Amino acid sequence: MNRLSQDRPGSVTVQSGQRRLGRRAALQALYLIDVRGCTAAQAMAEYAAQFRDSSEDLGFPSALVHGVLEHQEDIDQRIEKVSHRWRLDRMSRLDRSLLRLGVYELLYFGDTPRNVAINEAIELAKSFGNENSAAFVNGILDPIARSGLGPEDGAGVEPSDGAGNDTVP
């Protein structure tokens, strides 16, 4: 993992500091899945072998990883609808993994407030991404969050210019 040193979604109870660590673990696993094409179980096992503190509970990150993979098709459609001139395959693997994690928390993981999901994704982007990652992640997640559309509403997110301004198709 070069750049980055089954519960039901929403049912994992963890304190906020543990959630931050869990998101970091989930990001590392999602990145590994994207780079190597391995399974969630393989990615979480590698994370545990390389980075896990013996007291770290992997229930929360595992739930996030499995949830992202379960809903990846819808998540990817939503990202592509709001990312102008950026297809998923052109995004860095880290940014793509971060966006998938952020969208999953926004739309499917019921107990994370929207502003927390966005802020946590931005903080991860600042920690692991390049100088543009935080703004890029914010520019994609914000319009998805503001759309007010949950998973049951379909992927009909209105496009944005990435600066929080809605655009007319």
Can you put this structure into words, describing what you see?
The chain is mainly alpha-helical. It has one domain: Orthogonal Bundle (N-utilizing Substance Protein B Homolog, Chain A). 59% of the residues lie in helices and 0% in strands. The chain has helices at 16-36, 40-50, 59-70, 72-82, 93-107, 114-128, 133-146. Helix 3 (59-70) packs across helix 5 and helix 5 (93-107) runs parallel beside helix 7 (133-146). Residues 1-14 and 154-169 have low confidence and may be disordered.
Summarize this entry quickly.
The protein has 169 residues and is an all-alpha fold. The chain is built from 7 helices and no strands.
What's the SSE blueprint?
Layout: H1 16-36, H2 40-50, H3 59-70, H4 72-82, H5 93-107, H6 114-128, H7 133-146
Helix pairs in contact: 1-2, 1-3, 1-5, 3-5, 4-5, 5-6, 5-7, 6-7
Can you name the CATH architecture? Orthogonal Bundle
Instruction: Enter the CATH topology name.
Output: N-utilizing Substance Protein B Homolog, Chain A
Order of helices and strands: HHHHHHH
Total E-strand runs: 0
- What is the SS-derived class? mainly alpha
Distance between the termini: 39 Å
Helix content: 55-70%
Number of domains: 1
Provide the low-confidence segments as ranges. Answer: 1-14, 154-169
Strand content: under 5%
Count of helix runs: 7
Shape category: globular
Give Rg in angstroms: 15 Å
Main beta-sheet strand count, sense and barrel state:
none
CATH superfamily: NusB-like
CATH class: Mainly Alpha
Average pLDDT score: 81
